[in-house]
Every structure is written in C-alpha cells, then in structure tokens.
TrEMBL record:
Keywords: Carboxypeptidase, Hydrolase, Metal-binding, Metalloprotease, Protease, Zinc. It catalyses: Release of a C-terminal amino acid with broad specificity, except for -Pro. This is Metal-dependent carboxypeptidase. Its EC number is 3.4.17.19. Its cofactor is Zn(2+). Zn(2+) binds at residues 255, 259, 285.
Length: 489
C-alpha cells in the first residue's frame, strides 16, 4: 500500500477505538448503574491512554511525511490527521490518561451534587479538573493563549479575542430586545396543564422522524442532560420529559436531531475517517439551533405542531397563534437549555467569561459559585435560588469541556446566516413547514453544510453555504423581526 493508504487504515482503527470510548460515555449518562462509576473511570483512563498512544505513534509522522494527496479530499484528510497528530504529541500521555480518569469520576460527583443541591463534595474534584485542563492548555498553547488552545479543540481557527468582539456586538441589542419585550403591554400566555410523559416521548419520536432522523442508525433514550453521541451508522440522542412542560421534551429532541442528522448525512466516503464528523462544535450547534428555532419554533411549523398536540393531548387551551406565542415567549429562568431565543446567548456569555477566568487562574474554583451568582444577578436582574439552578446546572466543566460554551453562541450566529441564505434559496419553505414537512429545509442544509463533514474549515464552510462571511447581523435581525412582531414593539 501507499503511505496514504497505510495511514488511512491506521486512522480507521483509531477512529473505531474512539467511537467505542464515546459509546461508553453514552452508556454512563443513560443506563450505567451508579455503582459502576469507579470502574468506568478506570476503563476510560485505559482507553484514553491507548488512543493517545495511537495518535502519537511515530509511524503517523512518517506516513504524513511520505503521503502524496491525489485530490482535495485526500489533502483535507492529511490536514486533519496532521493537526491531530501535532496536538496529541504536545500533551503527555500520562496527563491525557489522568484527565480521562478524573473527569469520568467528576461526572458522577457532579450528578450527585446537582441532585442534592450540595456543591461541597464537588468542588475538590472540580478543582482537580481545572488544574489538569490548565496543564493541558499550557502544553497545547506552546507560549500562546492557553484558553485559545482549548477553544481550538471545538472551533478550529477561533480565538477568544475574535469571539469576544462578536459577543460584545451581540450583547447590547440582545439586552435591549429583552428589556423592550419584557416591558411590553403584549405578553404571550404560557401553555399550562399536565402532559403525559410517555405521550411526550412518543411525540418526540415522531418529530425526530419529521426532521429526518434515521432510526435504523440511531435511537432515543432519556437522560438528565439531553445530548447527541456517535457518528456515521450509530448516532444516538437523548431527551427528557417534564410533565408540566412538554416543550422541554419536544424541542430538546428537535435540537439533538439537528446534531444527529448532521452526523448521519455526512458523505459516506468519509465514514470512519477524520472527515467523517462535524467540522466544529460551532457548525454542529448551527444545525441543532436552526432545526430547533428557525424551523421548529417558526409560526408555520408551530401551527402544524398545535394540531398534533391537540390530537395527542387534547385541546391545549390556546389557538394556533397563541400557541406560537407560548412556544416563543420570553420568560424568567435560570437554566440555559430552557432559555428563550433572546436570552439564551446571555447565559452562554456568562459561562464564556467565567471559564476564561478559571483557566487563566484569575478565578479560583472555591469562588466560582459566588462569581456565577453575582454575574447572573447583574445580567438577568434576579438572584440564583439554588446551586442546581446556578453553576451546577451544566455537565460541561465536570467532564473538562473548557472552551466548549462559546460554540453555542457561535452556532447561533452561524444559524442566523444559514437561515437567511436558506430562505432566499427556498422561498416557499413556510408552505411546507405549515404541513409539518421539513424536507426542503433539511435537504438544503444537508447539501450545503452536512454532507461535507470536515472537508472545509468552519468559517469557509459557512461562507460557501451563505455566500458571505459569518456575521452576527443576520441573527440579530431575525430575532428583532420575530420578537418585535410577537411583542408588538
């Protein structure tokens, strides 16, 4: 075989091992018995060490030096392998294994702390996670900004400085829109009542299918924190049910289906290769957010959903227009994943700033809860009532995902750009959505974004799809138009 062929065969085996590791993570959050946490931590540590050994194998460097790409696809494969190889060699194997072991344990400790609203047992192990991630960041930064080194794992090419500039442009218009809507004399009513959790779950499966999720290569389970896991022919999602809030289940499902169909729709020629997954978490989030919000919360689609809700649960007590208002109403709340479209990004910016301070050493873990509560009160105007509604609500820091939160807002920005381009390309889209038919939208996204996998860099991919470079302007224009109409501003 050629050097390229040998390298790709080696990478395929490495990818398979990584997928097995990911499946253990899915198992841990869904069906693993609580008593297995310590053993699972050891298993994850061993697998992480094996993966690190493969990713730093000297033969990879030899193959990269000798390989000659035959086309743009092979050049992209080599680019991604070289990027991963260079980064893996910068992190000592012992550190990679220890991060995997400690974060696996920390996830269980976090879950217990969140359930009991007692952060004290969690703080020592979170302190250990932060210390380990600082060490990793220093190793990867090679003299540069440590936080940028962590951010690059999730959004290649992005920097904290460029994202801060974008976020600073978002904040004033988001706050102004939020304040104007909250002060308006027009206030949409909330959906009230009790909705059978099993019926919610069955309707969520119907919605997953309506948005193109392939159940022959996936499944839906329940979890405390909804997520999507896997790639290629095994892509799984989770959701959760709350008896008094069916939107929590239905829109969490649509959101995770956006992630999952991205993975399912990547060109099969890239299966089990470095190009066979989403190119970045920002682009990934753009798919979940455009499915959930610009499509799923649109007036045409909610009109169709209103009918299905009436068939499944009985008269919801709201007509179709009021139901649309209930789906999109701005509301006070503590939980990022339950936030409305206008305030969601304010939740993200809070986390972005705090985790940068943690990695820089400007904020101690012991002071994190107080810093969170102070910032939340300043941004939202009311105090956090308990830790599970504050700094304990997200799993991300317990599992070491520092640098991840910024991609949620970046994904919203990308989604705003994609929505504008998609609407221009599919002018009769609303007619289809009113019938519960998302195919024109999901087909456009598959062809312009999803099928490419990791072939293009994130900003290049969005620019190719939209015809212009990413900007926060389309998202802000969309939000101001939509909520200006809803609240008669």
């Amino acid at each position: 075989m050629s050097a390229y062929d040998e390298l790709m065969a080696f990478q395929r085996d490495t990818h398979a091992l990584a997928e097995v590791t990911g499946r253990l993570g899915w198992d841990q959050e869904t069906v693993m018995p609580r008593g297995a946490a310590e053993q699972r931590a050891e298993e994850m540590g061993v697998l992480s060490a094996m993966l690190h050994d493969r990713r730093t194998d000297p033969r990879v460097g030899d193959w990269l030096a000798a390989a000659e790409p035959a086309d743009d696809m092979q050049a992209a494969q080599l680019r991604e392998i070289r990027r991963g190889f260079d980064k893996a060699r910068m992190v000592p194997g012992k550190l990679a294994s220890e991060i995997a072991r400690v974060t696996s344990t920390a996830q269980g400790v976090w879950a217990e702390a969140r359930a009991t609203d007692d952060p004290k047992p969690f703080l020592p192990i979170l302190d250990r996670v932060v210390a380990l991630k600082r060490d990793e960041a220093q190793a990867l930064a090679d003299g540069g900004d440590p936080y940028d080194a962590l951010l690059d794992d999730y959004e290649p090419g992005a920097t904290a400085a460029t994202l801060s500039a974008m976020f600073d442009a978002l904040r004033p218009r988001l706050v102004a829109l939020r304040d104007a809507a909250m002060d308006s004399a027009v206030q949409p009513a909330a959906l009230t009542g009790r909705f059978d959790p099993e019926a919610q779950f069955h309707l969520s499966r119907e919605l997953a299918g309506a948005f193109g999720y392939d159940f022959t290569r996936g499944r839906i389970d329940r979890a405390v924190h909804p997520f999507s896991s896997g790639s290629g022919d095994d892509v799984r999602i989770t959701t959760r049910t709350v008896e008094t809030d069916p939107f929590n289940c239905l829109y969490s499902t649509i959101h995770e289906v956006g992630h999952a169909t991205y993975e399912q729709n990547i060109d099969r020629a890239y299966l089990m290769t470095p190009l066979g997954g989403g190119v970045s978490m920002g682009v990934h989030e753009s798919q979940s957010r455009i499915y959930e919000n610009q499509l799923g919360r649109s007036r045409p689609f909610t009109g169709w959903l209103h009918g299905r809700m009436a068939e499944v649960f009985g008269d919801p007590g709201l007509d179709a227009d009021a139901f649309y208002g209930a789906v999109n109403r701005l509301h006070r709340g503590f939980i990022r994943t339950e936030a409305d479209e206008v305030q969601y990004n304010l939740h993200v910016l809070l986390r972005f700033d705090l985790e940068r301070a943690l990695i820089a050493g400007d904020l101690a873990v012991g002071d994190l809860e107080g810093a969170w509560n102070d910032r939340f009160a300043a941004d939202f105007g009311y105090p956090v009532d308990r830790p599970s509604n504050g700094f304990l609500q997200d799993v991300h820091w317990s599992v070491g995902l520092f640098g991840y939160f910024a991609t949620y807002t970046l994904g919203n920005v990308y989604a705003g750009c994609l929505n504008a381009a998609m609407r221009a390309a599919v002018p009769d889209l609303d007619d289809h959505l009113a019938q519960g038919d998302t195919a024109p939208a999901t087909t456009w996204l598959r062809e312009n974004v999803q099928r490419h996998g990791g072939l293009y860099a994130p900003r290049e991919l969005i620019t190719r799809a939209c015809g212009t470079a990413p900007s926060e302007a389309p998202l802000l224009d969309y939000l101001e138009t939509k909520f200006g109409a809803l609240y008669a501003l």
